[in-house]
Amino acid sequence: MERIDVVLSPGEPLPPADVWLVVDILRATTSIVAFFDGGGALLTPLRTVEEALELRKIWGHRWLLAGERGGVPPDGFHRGNSPREMLSGSTGMRLLFTTTNGTEALLRCAATGHPVFAACARNARAAAKEALRRGKRIGIFCAGRHGRSALDDALCAGLLMRRLLEEGVRLEERAPSCGDGARMALALWRNLGEERFHDVVKEADHAEILRRLGMEEDVRFCCDIDRTDIVPLLGMWKDRPVFSHPQERAG
């Protein structure tokens, strides 16, 4: 029997899991998916701006800097955290990527030693299928915002729960099959559903910040559901967690 846990707040301890789906719908995991959807080659998630700058000195200028602080690119970065920008002009690109919440979430799950996938609305069904191939204990980790839970990530977790059920997960919606976080995420999805997905996400605190920064189209892009089969898997290269395109080899 499968077991699904959803970590709604990044401050929670991680439950046991065979595989992790990490969600930061606005915008890190959506940007990672879009980067590889657009032909990107390699992307390594990093916790700090300083670490990204230092690693570029070591790995070389073939690697570009991308990410955000406060929603905008740090000084000296080549790209921000816009998934629409990532989708275009990324062919063969290598990125050192750091964001306020998402990259920390990815690295925390990577420390468990189990497979970690970047998940979002745009690859929800594909991500559910990949998770089911990896094991029976599935963890969905919501990056949240500044250490707290976030409406947008919780609703996306509910979407992933729904897709897991549609893909054949045999799940009793009570313990031991389903943790409280998973039941909460699924209940949120059922109460709101696909038709209201964008309307609810755009009401989230993070979406409002992006709107004030003139990035409302990014929010809309992030709310598109099941648009790609790309599900980036976090691997290792030079002792660092790195995402790679399925057709690429780090080298």
Please describe the structure with a list of short key phrases separated by commas or semicolons.
251 residues, alpha/beta, five-stranded mixed β-sheet, 10 helices, 9 strands, 38% helix, globular
**Overall 3D geometry?**
globular
Note the run of SSEs as H and E: EEHEHEHEHEHEHHHHHEE
Strand content range: 15-25%
> Main β-sheet, in a few words?
5 strands, mixed
Mean pLDDT, all residues: 93
**Uncertain residue ranges:** none
Can you describe this structure?
α5 (124-134) packs across α6 (151-166). The chain has helices spanning 28-37, 49-59, 83-87, 102-110, 124-134, 151-166, 180-192, 197-201, 205-212, 216-222, and strands at residues 3-7, 19-23, 42-46, 63-67, 94-98, 116-119, 137-142, 234-237, 240-244. The mean pLDDT is 93. The protein is globular and about 50 Å long. Helices cover 38% and strands 18% of the residues. It has ten helices and nine strands. The chain is of the alpha/beta class and 251 residues long. A hairpin with a 2-residue loop joins β8 and β9 (240-244). The protein has a five-stranded mixed sheet, sandwiched between helices. Strands 1-7-2-6 form a four-stranded parallel sheet, sandwiched between helices.
Quick description:
The chain has 251 residues and is an alpha/beta fold. 38% of the residues lie in helices and 18% in strands.
